[in-house]
Amino acid sequence: MKQDTIPKAVCFNGSKFLSEPTNQPETSLAPHNTRDLTKKREDYLEWSEYFMGLAFLSAMRSKDPVSQVGACIVNCDNKVVGVGYNGMPLGCSDDVLPWNKYGQNRLETKYMYVCHAEMNAVLNKISSDVKGCTIYVALFPCNECAKIIIQAGIKHVIYMSDKHASKDETKAAKIMFDLAGVEYRKFVPRQKKIIIDFEAIDWNYPNQDLGQKTDEGRSADGLENLTLEDCAK
Ligand SMILES: Nc1ccn([C@H]2C[C@H](O)[C@@H](COP(=O)(O)O)O2)c(=O)n1
User: Fold this and answer.
1) Per-residue b or e along 56-68, where b marks 16 or more CB atoms closer than 10 Å to that residue's CB
2) What is the pLDDT of residues 69-101, one digit of tens each?
3) Where in the sequence numbering do the catalytic residues fall?
């Protein structure tokens, strides 16, 4: 086995790294979990996971009691240029307008009022235009959003669910996308879950897996008492 001189332990304690060189095989693993601190992380978010994750995070802002949809528009430099989620129009109180799916007449349903996530993402754009961009969206766009996407010059649609594929709105959207040369494809995530755990973060500790706590768990308190020997364990 290769015997390199590598730090016995590298702990981040406050603002300085502590290290102690020793002759150990190159298997020196992080304290409390199995990450090798000498190697680049391989389980970082891929771009597409990051963008779909942003779409899902945006969806969590939605007040729709049934379907929360988010969208994220990205340019060819992988820069986010717009995000949105389904909600009532600006200035129209979402305590006044209905969230019902059903009503005596359509005016009593949310469908007459709610702005779709895709529409909001386009309108919320922070660039001069979204030509040639990609939109990540949780649900396949309806025909009305397809028109907006096409007119805005977006060229790629990456969706998570096509659960309304049999509806005319979805069929019409696909007809228009095909004619306009907008490519659409289903998102295939590498990892099924992305967990954000606000309590997992620990700035005193460099080798954190946000949201992926080790069995032992970890806390700033425990770290304060951490010695180099602890780190080497
Ligand atoms: N591509 C889509 C599809 C739907 N939405 C919004 C519109 C409504 O707020 C909700 C759908 O309600 P449901 O019929 O599932 O009760 O989702 C969207 O923003 N984008």
Assistant:
1) bebbeebebeeeb
2) 999 999 999 999 999 999 999 999 999 999 999
3) 118
**Contact 67 CB / ligand 1 (< 6 Å):** yes
- Over residues 19-41, the pLDDT tens digits come to 333 344 444 444 455 778 999 99
Ligand 1 geometric centre to CA of 16 (Å)? 49
- 181's CB contacts (< 8 A; 6+ apart) are 155
Task: Report yes or no for ipTM above 0.90.
Answer: yes
Query: What is the pTM for the complete model shown?
Result: 0.77
Radius of gyration of the chain (CA): 24
Which of 176, 156, 165, 189 lies closest to 47 in space, CA to CA?
A: 189
Q: How many residues in the chain?
A: 233
